[in-house]
Amino acid sequence: DFHGDLFEFLRNDLFNARQYFSPTKSSLKRNQYGGTVGGPIRKNKLFFFGGYQGTKLRSDPANAEAFVPTAQMLAGDWTTFTSPACNPGGQIALRGPFVGNQISPALYSKVALYITNKILTSLPVQPNACGLITYPGAITKEDRWQFVSKVDYQRSDRHSI
C-alpha cells in the first residue's frame, strides 16, 4: 500500500483584492507546491518515505526612504524641516533652547558631522529639502526546493533500523 498527498498554496494578484487603504494591489506572487509518498519496498521489511516542496516567490520592488540631514540642517537651520511642507500635520517647533528652529552647529558632535559629511558627499542623489532620499527597492525573485527522504528496515518485531 502506497500512501501520499499533494498540495498547493497560491497567492497571486489575480485572486487578491486591493487592501482598503492601499492605492494599488499587492504584486506579491507566492506559489508553494509539493507532495509526499511512502510505502513498502519489500513487504513487512523495508519501507520508504519521500517528500518534496517547491516555493516560487515574486514581487515588484517597493520604494524605501532614508533621512539624511541637508547642508542647511548641518548649518543649524531647521526651519524647512519643521515647516508644513515636511510635516503634513502642520508646523512644529523644536523644544528647549532652540529658538526659531535654529540649532548652533557648535552643539553638534564633531564625529557625527564628519560621518554625515562623508555620507552626503558619497550619495548619488542628494536629499530633498526635508532630508529625505527615496530609492527603489530590489525585485524579489526567489526559488526554493526542499526534499526529505527516509528508509526503514524492520529486522524483527524488536529491531528496526
Description:
The protein is mainly beta. It folds into two domains: 3-61 and 138-153, no CATH class; 64-135, no CATH class. It is 11% helix and 37% strand. It is built from two helices and six strands. It has helices spanning 71-74, 110-122, and strands at residues 3-11, 29-42, 46-59, 64-67, 132-135, 140-153. A four-stranded antiparallel sheet has the order 1-2-3-6, with no helix packed on it. The chain has a two-stranded antiparallel sheet with strand order 4-5. A hairpin with a 3-residue loop joins strand 2 (29-42) and strand 3 (46-59). It is elongated, with a radius of gyration of 30 Å. The model has no long low-confidence stretch (mean pLDDT 88).
Number of strands: 6
Q: Low-confidence stretches at least 5 residues in length (pLDDT < 50)?
A: none
Report how far apart the termini are.
Answer: 20 Å
User: What's the pLDDT, averaged over the residues?
Assistant: 88
User: What is the general shape?
Assistant: elongated
Instruction: Give the helices and strands as they follow along the chain.
Output: EEEEHHEE
Largest sheet: 4 strands, antiparallel
Give the strand order of the largest sheet, numbering strands 1, 2, ... along the chain.
1-2-3-6
Helix content: 10-25%
- What does the radius of gyration come to? 30 Å
> What is the total domain count?
2
- Which class best fits the helix and strand makeup? mainly beta
Residues in β-strands, percent: 35-45%
